[in-house]
Every structure is written in C-alpha cells, then in structure tokens.
Write a structure and sequence with these properties.
3-stranded antiparallel beta sheet, two-stranded antiparallel ribbon, globular
Length: 346
C-alpha cells in the first residue's frame, strides 16, 4: 500500500504510517498484491513451507490451525503472533483456547528472509495466510488448491481475553458453534467445511477430557478406551486428531479392526474427518455435536460422500476466512519481526 507522507515532524510521520485497517483492507486486498511490490514473495514462502513440512509434517497442520486462530479473533492481522509486551501484557498466545499453537519459528524465518529482499513491505499477516495456503496444498497432495488475496496490515493489539471470547471452544454445543461462526458471517455449511481441518493435527487431552467418559452413542467405546490410554501416559499429552495417524501398536491393541487404515505418512489432508465423525471416532465434543444438528449432519454425510466437493469448498472457505478484517477503527502497519509490534515508516 502506498501512502503519501508529509514529513512535518516525526509524530506526523508515525501517524501516517499507521493506516486505518478497514478501509485499507477493503480496497487493497487482491491476488498477486506483491507482484510489483516484492516479486517472488510467494515463492519464498512456499520454499520455506516445503522444507519445513519435509522435515516435520506436523508443521503443516500447525499452520492451518494458526491462521484460523489468528483470523477468527481480530481478523487476519497477525495478532496471534505477538509476544508479551508492555503494550500487550497478556497476548493471544496465553489464551487457553490457544494451547499448543506452534510454527511461530517458521514464520519468523520466512519474515527474516523477506525483510532482506523487501524491507518493510510484506506483512506477517500475509505471510501467515500464504503459509497456511501452501501447507494445505502440500498436505492434501495438491487436491486443495486456491489463491488468496494479500495486502493486509499487521495489527497492534493482542489480547488473550479477546481470543478466549472469540474462538470456538471444543466443548461447545452445536448451537453455540453455529452462533459463534455466524458472528463472523459463516453459515452452518461453512462451519462443517472448516471443521474438516480436524483430519490433521494434534490436541491436548485437556481439550477433549469430557469425551473420555462420554456414552457409547456419542463415541465408539474402543476409541474412547484408546484415548483414555493415550491421555494416561503423561500430564496432558498431545494426541493425534485422526486415529488413522495413531501408532500402529496402539490401534492394534484397542481398535484391531482399524489396523489396515493406519498410515505411515501422517497428516494427509482429506475428507476422512467426515467418515470418522459418522463412525463416532472423533476426539472433540465440538466435532461430535455436528451430528446432533439436522443441517450440519446432512453436510457431514455430503462431504463424506464427495471428497472433491469438500476439497473445493474448503479452499473457498479458507479464502473467505482470509478476508476477515480488523475491527473498525483499528490501526496497522508492517512489522520487522512477527512477534513484536514495530511499524517502520513506509
């Protein structure tokens, strides 16, 4: 974004650098935004993500989760990336809903490389959106492929309280989920579509502790026993979201009929979430409750039956997610480091 700045004094310059987010984002977001401003920036991001996932496939799922947890709070402004500071003494990272967020180091490495190439041009919020897009494509073996617009600004505010209030909770009922997504202008179908991201990744046992004693009509007993075993191994351990990604010996012991579906390569991003939900082998209460709502249940069946449709619809929903803007009146700029508020003049 270009801005004419009259350098009357340092204060005026600083105020000019802090752009009004809603109007800037509404007029400035577009595909190929950096084609002339920082040519090749998307290739730089993609290269980092390919290498990171090759080294650790879990990075991909972490990025998909991270972009949702960023955009659903204050819009896609990189606020989830900020560390604790005098300005933000309790940042979003501290919210209980954000337990286990990861891949911050990858984003900082990407940002550092881009700053060498185009200092003060590319926002951390755009880098995160690009990174999540690339991770989605890689983990889905190219089946989920979409372009995202860019031109976002990095926000100044990060609040754990706000994150906890805005993000959906894993204990929510179907109606609570529907109401939560509706506040961001997402309908029931889009709620079900985005929930499909739980085919990858991991979660702490504290996020689904109620499922460890749920009745058989809500969770398959063999899967419940497996979760109890895994959660008993240490204090609040991480457990894979998709039993298909569980270690073979554990599945053989607790769910022997599922052995043939265990994968050596984990985190394949596909429509398996919907098959798992129909079979009552999902870990979050917020996943299972989709089966208690008529419209949501219909979409679960729809996407279990049509993987290609889900691939396309997930891409469209991620584009819509990426367009969530900062609250009216918010200010923004371009950070030098993604974890620190610092907006250089530009």
């Amino acid at each position: 974004m270009k801005l004419s700045v009259v350098l009357l004094c340092g204060l005026v310059a600083l105020q000019a650098a802090l752009l009004a987010a809603p109007s800037a984002e509404a007029s400035g977001l577009k595909v190929g935004y950096y084609n002339k401003k920082c040519r090749g920036v998307e290739a730089v991001v993609k290269g980092h993500i390919i290498r990171a996932i090759k080294k650790n496939p879990r990075v991909g799922a972490a990025l998909v989760r991270l972009v949702f947890h960023d955009c659903f709070v204050r819009g896609c402004d990189g606020s989830v990336l900020l560390d604790k500071s005098a300005q933000n003494p309790h940042p979003e990272k501290e919210a209980p809903a954000n337990i286990g967020l990861a891949a911050f180091d990858i984003l900082e490495m990407i940002k550092a490389d881009i700053e060498k190439k185009c200092p003060g041009v590319v926002s951390c919020s755009d880098i995160l959106v690009y990174a999540a897009r690339d991770a989605t494509k890689i983990l889905s073996k190219g089946h989920i492929n979409y372009d995202v617009p860019a031109g976002r600004l990095d926000g100044l505010v990060s609040s754990a309280y706000e994150a906890q209030a805005e993000l959906p909770d894993s204990t929510f009922t179907a109606q609570q989920l529907i109401d939560n997504f509706a506040r961001k202008n997402f309908d029931v179908e889009e709620l079900v579509i985005l929930s499909g991201a739980h085919s990858i990744g991991m979660a702490h046992c504290s996020s689904f502790k109620g499922r460890l004693s749920a009745p058989a009509d809500q969770i398959t007993p063999a899967y419940r026993n497996l979760l109890n075993y895994k959660c008993g191994q240490s204090a609040n351990p991480l457990v894979v979201n998709n039993v298909r990604d569980e270690d073979y010996n554990t599945v053989a012991k607790y769910m022997p009929g599922f052995k043939s579906r265990v994968r050596k390569i984990r985190d394949l991003f596909d429509n398996s979430y919907y098959h798992n939900n129909l079979a009552r082998i999902v870990s979050f209460n917020s996943d299972w409750v989709l089966m208690t709502h008529k419209e949501a249940r219909g979409h679960v069946h729809e996407y279990a039956d049509n993987a290609t449709l889900w691939n396309d619809d997930f891409g469209e929903s991620m584009i819509k997610l990426s367009k969530l803007s900062m609250p009216a009146g918010s200010k923004g700029g371009i950070r030098k480091k993604c974890s620190i508020v610092s907006h250089p003049l530009h």
